[in-house]
C-alpha cells in the first residue's frame, strides 16, 4: 500500500480486455500510507505544468484509469529514488486515480490532467510517506518528494459508473450472477484465449466472495464501490 503503482504493460485493447474486467470485480485498492491530522490539512501539493497539449481532453478525475511515466526525486538532495522507465521493461504504469493505489500526493497531483500533459510536482511528507519513510526505495522519514510526470492516457476506470451500467443489463442498480456470468463470457470471447470452462466458474465465485458483502446474491452499487460521485 502506498507504493508506486505496478500495473501491466499497456496493450492496444487496454480498458476492454479481461485484465481490466477483473479489476472492477475482484480487486479492492489498498489505502495509501499517509499521515493524518492538521499537518496534512495545512500542506498541499505544488504543481508546475511543464507542457500542456493544444487539445486537453479528457481531463483525469477520480476513478479514471491512467497510463503514465514518472520519475521520483528527494527534494533534499535531488537524488532519484524511482524511475518508471527502468521498471517493467520500461512500460508506462497503469493505475486507478484517487483510490489509494499511489501515495495521496500523486492522487492529488494527477487530477485534472490531460493526455500528453507533463507536470513537475512537489509533495510534502504528510501526503507521501510521512514520519515512517519508505526504506525499500530509500525514502527517509519526513521526506518532501518531487515527481516529474508525463501522462499518456486517460480511460474510464474499472469501477466507474459506466462500467457498472455496462454489466447491469436490466438497469436495476445491482449486478446478478447471471449478468456477471454473461459479462465474463463476453470478455472471454473478446480476449480470444482458450480457457478451461472451470475458469469461468472459479472467477465468478471469487467475484461474489469478495464483493457480495451482505450475501444476498447480488452486488449492489455500494458493494461494487463506484469511485465517481455520479448518481447511478
Task: Report on the architecture of this protein.
- With 232 residues, the chain is of the alpha+beta class.
- The chain has 2 domains: 46-155, Chitinase A, domain 3; 161-220, EF-hand (Recoverin, domain 1, Orthogonal Bundle).
- It has helices at 18-26, 38-42, 104-109, 161-167, 177-191, 197-211, 221-224; strands at 46-51, 65-74, 80-83, 93-96, 118-123, 145-155, 174-176, 218-220.
- The strands form 2 sheets. Strands 1, 2, 3, 4, 5 and 6 form a 6-stranded antiparallel β-sheet that branches. Strands 7-8 form a two-stranded antiparallel ribbon.
- Helix 5 packs across helix 6 (197-211).
- It is elongated.
- The model is unreliable at 1-41 and 228-232 (pLDDT under 50).
- Residues 63-155 form the PPIase FKBP-type domain.
- This is peptidylprolyl isomerase.
- It is an enzyme of class 5 (isomerase).
- It catalyses: [protein]-peptidylproline (omega=180) = [protein]-peptidylproline (omega=0).
- One of its GO terms (molecular function) is peptidyl-prolyl cis-trans isomerase activity.
Strand content: 15-25%
Query: Which descriptor suits the 3D outline?
Result: elongated
- Radius of gyration of CA atoms, rounded to a whole number: 19 Å
Give the averaged pLDDT, no decimals: 78
The ordered H/E elements are: HHEEEEHEEHEHHEH
Query: What is the helix tally?
Result: 7
Q: What CATH architecture of the largest domain do you see?
A: Roll
How can the largest sheet be summarized? 6 strands, antiparallel
The low-confidence parts are 1-41, 228-232
CATH topology of the largest domain: Chitinase A, domain 3
Q: Helix amount, in percent?
A: 25-40%
CATH classification class of the largest domain: Alpha Beta
Distance between the termini: 29 Å
Supply the helix-strand structural class: alpha+beta
**Extended strand count:** 8
Structurally, the number of domains stands at 2
Domain EF-hand: 155-190, 199-232
Signal peptide: 1-34
Protein name: peptidylprolyl isomerase
InterPro entries: EF-hand-dom_pair, EF_Hand_1_Ca_BS, EF_hand_dom, PPIase_dom_sf, PPIase_FKBP, PPIase_FKBP_dom
Amino acid at each position: 500500500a502506498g507504493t508506486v503503482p505496478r500495473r501491466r504493460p499497456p496493450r492496444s485493447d487496454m480498458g476492454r480486455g479481461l485484465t481490466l474486467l477483473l479489476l472492477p470485480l475482484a480487486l479492492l485498492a489498498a489505502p495509501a500510507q499517509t499521515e493524518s491530522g492538521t499537518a496534512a490539512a495545512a500542506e498541499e501539493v505544488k504543481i508546475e505544468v511543464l507542457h500542456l497539449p493544444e487539445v486537453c481532453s479528457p481531463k483525469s478525475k477520480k476513478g479514471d484509469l491512467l497510463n503514465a511515466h514518472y520519475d521520483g526525486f528527494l527534494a533534499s538532495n535531488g537524488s532519484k529514488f524511482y524511475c518508471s522507465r527502468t521498471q517493467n521493461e520500461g512500460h508506462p504504469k497503469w493505475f486507478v486515480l484517487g483510490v489509494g493505489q499511489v501515495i495521496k500526493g500523486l492522487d492529488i497531483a494527477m487530477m485534472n490532467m490531460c493526455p500528453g500533459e507533463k507536470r513537475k510536482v512537489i509533495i510534502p511528507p504528510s501526503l507521501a510517506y510521512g514520519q515512517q519513510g519508505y526504506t525499500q526505495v530509500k525514502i527517509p522519514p519526513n521526506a518532501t518528494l518531487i515527481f516529474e510526470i508525463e501522462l499518456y492516457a486517460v480511460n474510464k476506470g474499472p469501477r466507474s459508473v459506466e462500467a457498472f451500467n455496462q454489466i447491469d443489463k436490466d438497469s436495476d442498480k445491482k449486478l446478478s450472477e447471471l449478468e456477471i456470468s454473461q459479462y465474463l463470457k463476453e470478455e472471454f470471447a473478446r480476449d480470444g484465449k482458450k480457457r478451461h470452462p472451470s475458469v469461468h466458474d472459479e472467477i465468478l465465485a471469487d467475484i461474489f466472495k469478495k464483493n457480495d458483502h451482505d450475501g444476498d446474491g447480488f452486488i449492489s452499487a455500494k458493494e461494487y464501490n463506484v469511485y465517481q460521485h455520479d448518481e447511478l
